[in-house]
Amino acid sequence: MTTRIDRDVVIIGAGASGLTAATSLRRAGLTVAVLEARDRVGGRLWTEDIEGATLEIGGQWVSPDQHALKETLAELGLETYSRYRAGENVYINDSGVRTRFEGEIFPVAPETQAEIVALIETLDALVAEVDPDRPWAHPRAVELDRISFAGWLATQTEDQEARDNVAMFIAGAMLTKPAHAFSALQALLMAASAGSFSNLVDADFILDERVVGGLQQVPLLLAEQLGDDVHLGQPVRTLRWDDEGVVAVTDGLEVHARRAILALPPTLLSRISFEPALPRRQHQLHQHLSMGLVIKVHAVYETPFWREDGLSGTAFSPYELVHEAYDNTTFGDGRGTLVGFVSDEAADAVFRLPAEERRARILLSLSHYFGDKALSPAVYYESDWGNEEWTRGAYAASFDLGGLARYGADLRTPVGPIHFSCSDLAGKGYQHVDGAIRMGRDTAAAIAAVLEPVATLTSVLD
């Protein structure tokens, strides 16, 4: 027996974007149903208690320029706290030499430092020319989309350490793909979405604050306000559509609506059978998008021992298995937590190892930054979004070479009554919660502008 629901709009995906869209539509007087495949809301936001430690398994940081997210936090009454950053940072070079430092530029040879500064200045100048909502409109978009970011860096300097360090901030820290696997234009979009390349380099900016109780509080509270209109454990198997509306079919529900919002990563759209099929253009562009891969490592210690040594907990090296690490101690917790990241090809390699050997290698890398005490956490946990059935990678989908200039303009274009909304499609705030919220608001506004509320009913189909 299948339950039928009639609504103005059906939203597929209960992440920050889908729930924001649903909330905005309800405020506009429209009725909604949110269908979520998982048994929880939040998508790539997930806070969980692991062995007595509260860990943010997914996204967690709030930047000063993320105004849509900050507005939502204020509306929901959520508080933030600053990331711990007092003390010196650590850098390890390609020879394994560990150096403590302060400031934004790594402690490298003067000539390498000059090259890094020059690359950042060049990138900032290019980023200033890029509209994050329309990067394909840049006069050199096609040219910049045909060369990999690694290839572009090689045209700018012969200094390998300078190239490795600049690449790390886009490849390892953001797109979580090798720098040879995405274009210079895709790198510029990533930087433009944060305001500048300098912002991405500045950990004190891009990783400024966290939310008390975890960032998943945003979708949890939004879903609470939506109440029974959020349906968990309901993966959409089929979406039938025509000019009049849509029918979303799950194993237990059939939602009839005038519009649909697909608020899920574009890489998951193939999990839905569309009747009729989506247009050729959509089929093609989705095949040129793919997720990155990253292991987010949480190591909880009895005390934040690095602080006693005058360290901030911030560490970088494109030559280490863990290419970046931060003090990630939870608000109000007397223990200390380090979070580290293992990306792209390095993640591929360690995922081939048995779990205990992978853990040992990752902790050994952390110990290169923070000493032998890092080898023995009280709690150890790896966030592996690539293994998540309804995500399949992190942090977001990005195009292969040439894909952004070729298909980018169609990413957010509705197909009949079907609209698309998620952080993967955002310009400002791309692949961040801020972008998810912006997309949710914009998509809801576009629908509310053309739909008049109508009466709805719930019934049971035989």
What does this structure look like?
The chain is of the alpha/beta class. The protein folds into three domains: 2-44 and 216-278 and 415-461, FAD/NAD(P)-binding domain, CATH 3.50.50; 47-85 and 206-211 and 293-387, Alpha-Beta Complex (Polyamine Oxidase, Chain A, domain 2); 109-203, Guanine Nucleotide Dissociation Inhibitor, domain 1. It has 16 helices and 23 strands. It has helices at residues 16-27, 67-76, 110-127, 141-145, 149-156, 160-175, 184-193, 197-201, 203-206, 217-226, 280-286, 305-308, 344-351, 355-370, 403-407, 433-448, and strands at 2-12, 32-35, 47-50, 53-56, 61-62, 80-82, 88-92, 98-101, 209-211, 230-231, 238-242, 245-249, 253-262, 273-275, 289-291, 294-301, 311-316, 324-327, 336-343, 379-384, 397-399, 418-420, 458-461. Strands 1, 2, 10, 11, 12, 13, 14, 22 and 23 form a nine-stranded mixed β-sheet that branches. A seven-stranded mixed β-sheet has the order 8-7-17-18-19-16-20. Helix 1 (16-27) runs parallel beside helix 10, helix 3 (110-127) crosses helix 7 (184-193) and helix 5 (149-156) packs across helix 7 (184-193).
Structure, briefly:
The protein is of the alpha/beta class and 462 residues long. It has 16 helices and 23 strands.
Q: Based on the coordinates given, report the CATH architecture of the largest domain.
A: 3-Layer(bba) Sandwich
Model regions low in confidence, pLDDT < 50 over at least 5 residues? 455-462
CATH class of the largest domain: Alpha Beta
**Main sheet properties:** 9 strands, mixed
Cα distance spanning the termini: 6 Å
Structural class by sheet pairing and helices: alpha/beta
Keywords: Oxidoreductase
InterPro entries: Amino_oxidase, FAD/NAD-bd_sf, Flavin_amine_oxidase, Flavin_MAO
Binding site for substrate: 341
Domain Amine oxidase: 17-447
